[in-house]
Amino acid sequence: MFHRVFIANRGEVAARVARTCVRLGITPVFGVSEADADAPYCRDHERVVLGPGRAAESYLDIERVIQAAVQSQCSALHPGWGFLSENAVFARMCEAYGITFLGPAAHVMALMGQKNPAKKAMREAGLTLIPGSDGVLESAEAALETAKRIGFPVLVKAENGGGGRGMRIARSEDEVERAYNESKAESMACFADDRVYMEKLIERGRHVEIQLLGDKYGNAVHLGIRDCTVQRNHQKLIEESPAPTLSAEERERTLDAAVRAVGAIGYAGAGTMEFLLGDDGVMRFMEMNTRLQVEHCVSEERTGIDLVEQQLRVGAGQALSITQEDIKLDGHAIECRINAEDPSDNFRPAPGVLEVWKAPSGEGIRVDTHVEQGYEVPPHYDSLICKVIASGDTREQAIERMIKALGEMQCEGVPTTAGMHIEILKSADFKSSNYNTSAIPGWPAKEGGQA
Predict the structure, then answer these.
(1) Rounded-to-integer distance, Cα 326 and Cα 368, Å
(2) What rounded mean pLDDT belongs to the chain?
């Protein structure tokens, strides 16, 4: 096992990875921007300042991150999510400098990042696909030709994206060039990569995904299916497991195919395959996220498996110590992402000081956070304050525990989305699972969209 692990990320995921490192006797070393240098989660640990608060000059600067990891004598690097977590060039540079990248091998990441080869591999494994472009779009003209071929509406997506960044919808020929250019610009700003591709937009589907684990010896398992349908502008708001509207036959067919695919491509580590569940009940493969997901917690709560620990063990060359038969999917788990945003003002980000902060607690409640009272939410990054995860024997029990927990949460100084989540959870549509990606159940804004 590693002795020192460099955490090339910030906020909640950095704190999350560090907790498992400490539990396993591993020293975490944080790479931080100047804006995060005094953050509470790295106060009692080693840290290296990468650069200014602007992500392009700190968390996205490959050379600075690699240099910091080498100079701090770390033998492994955890990329978290977002930033450089799915950048194959970054993973390859880690390998070149003798640093174990805690994710799949660079060539596997590159394969899954190239949409045409990735989709071919998934099709051969038995997965159903969404119609789209044959790989990266080289020009606005190519985007228009693809849109005409697959039919409107279409979605232009960042090749190296995540978290809903770099996505634009085009509903007619006149909108394609704008969608293409805006998607490229946001992708470059967020991921230092302006490559984009296109998919047919399925507006009234449900967003479901499969949590997977693989090792370097061809072993692979799944940790069930999550439903991430409740979204705003492609940003997930609520995630749960199991998916409430999915036939047992389609679930088992797709799970088996996904596990076969992971073994076939030699995928090692934690990864997630994302699908759209259509009105016909078929799960159609969209993409594979070759990293830890924000919503991994709901799978952990149902299985009792620490996914960060598994990443560390697989990265260290160990075989998976669990088989599919060992994994028990118990009860129901729901996660709400609480952001420092004002839902009444078009979800305006609200950086500022948490003058009062008290996280909820209680039976079946888990809170993953990086903040404390007095913490200043910086203006440079995602405004996530915490994730609240509620577990129960049934979906109904998990919902009630979540509503109670969010009601008990105390946060003053900045507006949050907690009240909006309560309204969603209390709505008849959410409780009956009568919703899709086209609208937020129980919320007046009625925004959403394909992931």
Answers:
(1) 26
(2) 94
